[in-house]
Amino acid sequence: MTNENCGTKIEFAETMRGYVDAAQTSYADGYAAGKAKGNALSINVSVLIPDLQRFLDEPEHAGTLDGEVDCSLLGGSCAVQSGVFRLLPDTADRGQVFGYHGLYVADGSALPGAVGANPAATISAVSVWITEGITGIVPDDDLGMHAVRRE
């Protein structure tokens, strides 16, 4: 579709489904363990790119993303509002603020919207994922929180 002010506009919807497990560190292991435990994940979004040429030519010109993420591990259905859609983002820079080399966001503001009734686990998981991307260190199962024994 072409509009007078912006050029070619693209709008589409996508549904992605799979399984997830919070204790796993690889996609394949997370899928397998999540499937075994019945931890389904569904992402239903609508993407709007108001000007295709600007979207392709200018990395800072993103599309919008709205919809919902449905996963019991995240507290059920979570709205995605005012999300950002970029063409092939570099996942090695996860959490990096666009246009500011070396500046990272690893808290709830890195998420596109509300994540459910108890967001602490989701925000913590995203923070660990971003930290792993920055440092290259894969956390162990207890995330370095070793119990201290008192004798």
- Topology pattern, helix = H, strand = E: EEEHEHEEH
Fraction in beta strands: 25-35%
Oligomer: single chain
Compute the separation of the termini in Å.
72 Å
C-alpha-based Rg, rounded: 18 Å
Number of helices: 3
- How many domains? The number is 1
Uncertain parts = none
Number of distinct beta strands: 6
Q: What would you call the structural class? A: alpha+beta
Widest sheet, order of strands:
3-4-5-6
> Describe the biggest sheet?
4 strands, antiparallel
- Report mean pLDDT, rounded to a whole number: 77
Shape: globular
- How much helix is in the residues? 10-25%
Give a quick summary of the entry.
The protein contains three helices and six strands, in the order E-E-E-H-E-H-E-E-H. The protein has 151 residues and is an alpha+beta fold.
What does this structure look like?
This protein has 151 residues and is α+β, with helices and mostly antiparallel strands. It has one domain (2-135). It has three helices and six strands; from the N terminus they run E-E-E-H-E-H-E-E-H. The chain has helices spanning 27-37, 52-57, 120-135; strands at residues 2-3, 7-8, 10-19, 40-49, 63-71, 76-85. The chain has a four-stranded antiparallel sheet. A hairpin with a 4-residue loop joins strand 5 (63-71) and strand 6 (76-85). The longest helix has 16 residues, at 120-135. The mean pLDDT is 77.
